């Protein structure tokens, strides 16, 4: 049975992470652009896929079966990891645990805090927004230690931890004190130069 994948998304960090994971896993998929600026994510067609009205959404279709739908970027990354053993998560238990430790460090301690700050941007809680944005930045800076001796966030091979780290570092690129973070800078350029990462970042470009 032929399985096809669609990734519904836009030019946002969560969508880029999902697209990069599919690219790095070598999975072929069709990007479906959801135009957030005109509220396409809140229309019936998209709400049928994700009632929360968010992107990204991965749709796996197989003839004769109900579509399989995933609506969280991090679940999509782990889905991609499961389809391509060894490419995004290491095989050994200990290495995989370390990789997941770093993956969740970026997801919960940096990305979630940064999103919380972002969600306060249009409120009167400007002080709270700054506290959260500063905390996300300071926490991301501590990732210098992960790449001080290794090429990647969880050792000598690229992994889901690099995907989680890269898009948030990219969105904070202008604010990071790079001269203080030489290893993180080299890592950033290393990840930025990967062909699959480039393709993932271009997945939702309009043609
Ligand atoms: N935890 C979700 C967050 C999804 C999310 O917040 N997506 C944003 C774009 S990055 C979105 O759809 N925003 C549109 C809206 O909230 O109206 C994930 O990681 O996929």
Automatic annotation (TrEMBL):
For this protein, the record's InterPro entries field holds:
Glutathione-S-Trfase_C-like (IPR010987), Glutathione-S-Trfase_C_sf (IPR036282), Glutathione_S-Trfase (IPR040079), Glutathione_S-Trfase_N (IPR004045), GST_C (IPR004046), Thioredoxin-like_sf (IPR036249)
Alphabetical list of Gene3D superfamilies matching this protein:
1.20.1050.10, Glutaredoxin
Which positions fall inside the GST N-terminal domain? 2-88
Every copy of the GST C-terminal domain together lies at 93-207
Question: Which Pfam family is one of those matched by this entry?
Answer: GST_C
Homology family: Belongs to the GST superfamily.
Known PANTHER family for this protein?
GLUTATHIONE S-TRANSFERASE-RELATED (PTHR44051), HYPOTHETICAL GLUTATHIONE S-TRANSFERASE LIKE PROTEIN (PTHR44051:SF2)
Protein name in UniProt: Glutathione S-transferase family protein
Q: Which organism was this protein described from?
A: Lichenifustis flavocetrariae
